[in-house]
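Re-run requested by the PI after the first attempt was lost when the workstation crashed. Everything re-entered from the original request form. Ligand of interest: nicotinamide-adenine-dinucleotide.
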Amino acid sequence: MHKVNVALIGSGFMGKAHSLALSELSVLFPDCPLQPHKYVVVDVNEELAKTAAQNLGYEKWSTDWESVVSDPQVTLVDIVTPNDLHKPIAIAAARTGKHIFCEKPLSLNAQDSYQIYQEVEKAGVKHGMGFHYRKIPAIAYAKELIRQGKVGEVFAFRGFYLNDWAKDPNGPLSWRFQKAKAGSGVIGDQCTHAIDIARYLLGELEQVCAWVKTLIPERPLPTSVFDALGRKTEGRGKEMGKVDVDDACAILFEAQGGILGILEANRCASGRKNYLSFEINGSRGSIYFDWERNNELWYCSNDDRFEEHGYRRLLMGPGHPYGQYFWPIAGINIGYTEAVAINFYQMLQAIVNDTDCDPDFEDGWRIEEIVEAALRSHEEKRWVLCHAV
Ligand SMILES: NC(=O)c1ccc[n+]([C@@H]2O[C@H](COP(=O)([O-])OP(=O)(O)OC[C@H]3O[C@@H](n4cnc5c(N)ncnc54)[C@H](O)[C@@H]3O)[C@@H](O)[C@H]2O)c1
């Protein structure tokens, strides 16, 4: 069994999810010819990096991503930092021949994302993207139903990503509220997942007409404080700072083949926690999914008798995509880190088989083009084509 030495850069919320997924991988996917080894974790200071190495199970720690990226022992660089660092780390990693897994969004904008995509292609390294949600069996099965023609000709898609983690105006001005560090707001953060699912299920998005809004225009500046475990928390000071990105967005789109689409994302939608959902209507039926009940897929077939027509709940189990890797009975259920584990498993297979990762940096770049087209549409109050080429 060959080992892949992983360098995790950034040990926050998502760094923990990646670490759990890497730990699960050998148990869930014993057939994987490559297995990850949690070699080194990087964070901004010794306290954070050292604590992360202990808690998340890495052999070593560092505070210097540049030296880690050029360490010959490292095979795969896993970028899980705030968005402004994705580009420099990815380009440095590509130039030293490392395979790269990068969290979404790929970078701050479409131009930078294209440059990163060009660099990894030139270097011939594998590049995977953190659009993990599409890896869950229910969403993969939705694609299967569409492919089998069970929905008929798809004519409408409506997707939402609503949550309320940002609803408190006293919540500090973290990097997610700053354009220089995040690139954009909820549109580049949550909404990119909904865009990814739309592209995954329908094909390319062609044009958009969008509207975005900042709901809480200023927030207390954070004070960097550390909790008992040494994790940085976003304590708040008295001074206020400006939020220069969006908290809410609504996008009308046309996908290839003339499919009508609607997307909405909002991080101040009280009562919604992780409501990543979509509904698809076609000539033979419909599909509905909601991440908060992520082991369920709702399917309606127009072949059903009139009296029995309506949505039926399919509970994911061993017969559905990736089901053989999990539990022998439907309804035992899997969750967030398993979606991340499937994504890593497929990237390791892409390394072995010399195939493309799915999703990869090309998807990351295309999605940034869609985000940028939507922001331009908002500014210019018109429909905008998503892609120049
Ligand atoms: N795919 C998903 O579902 C998903 C979910 C959440 C976050 N994300 C993405 O993951 C990335 C990280 O988000 P998060 O929620 O984990 O953020 P976070 O703020 O919780 O963690 C970021 C970590 O990066 C560290 N960091 C900052 N600068 C660094 C540097 N120079 N070197 C090393 N480490 C550094 C921070 O100290 C922190 O520990 C973002 O790009 C975000 O968009 C993806």
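Saved to the shared folder this time. Residues 227-231 have pLDDT under 50 and may be disordered.
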